Amino acid sequence: MASIFTKIVAGEIPCYKVAEDEHHLAFLDINPNTTGHTLCIPKKETDRLMDLEEQAYNDLMNFSRKVALALREVVPCKRIGLSVIGLEVPHAHVHLIPLNEMTDATFQKKATMSPEAFESLAKKIQEAF
Questions:
Q1: 3-state class (DSSP) for residue 51
Q2: 17 within 8 A of 5, measured Cβ to Cβ
Q3: Residue-wise pLDDT tens digits, 59-71
Q4: 1, 16, 21, 121: which could join 28 in a potential S-S bond, CB 3.0 to 4.6 Å?
């Protein structure tokens, strides 16, 4: 069964896309820890990050770095945190989370954003990418 991320890649489910290349997609998390929380995924469905072939893993990390640099330009924060958990969705993904305090990385508190705010932020990150 296709993961929710595979359905996003296929265009079956909408997303707030911030970056894309031939093999990867980055979009805003709709249940963000902080404003700008972004997910970077390989377009090819692979359950676990460490199951990616070495080149695909390196390519995902390089893509994630480029997205993080764009995110850093747009969202004021002390750091862009990178987290790989992968328990909720069986599709390899990287969380990029703008951090101002350690609790921003704990997935215990969530930011609330309107659809208009998501759209505006996604556009700004696209432009910085």
A1: helix
A2: no
A3: 999 999 999 999 9
A4: 16
Query: 56 exposed, middle or buried (CB, 10 Å; 0-12, 13-18, 19+)?
Result: middle
pLDDT in tens, 31-61: 999 999 999 999 999 999 999 999 999 999 9
If we measure between CA atoms, which residue out of 125, 95, 100, 123 comes closest to residue 32?
95
Domain count, the chain: 1
Q: Which domain holds residue 38?
A: 4-128
Q: What share of the chain is helix, strand, coil (3-state, %, to 5)?
A: 35, 20, 45
Q: How far apart are CA 41 and CA 8, in angstroms?
A: 10
Q: Show which residues are catalytic.
A: 93
Domain harbouring 106, CATH code: 3.30.428.10
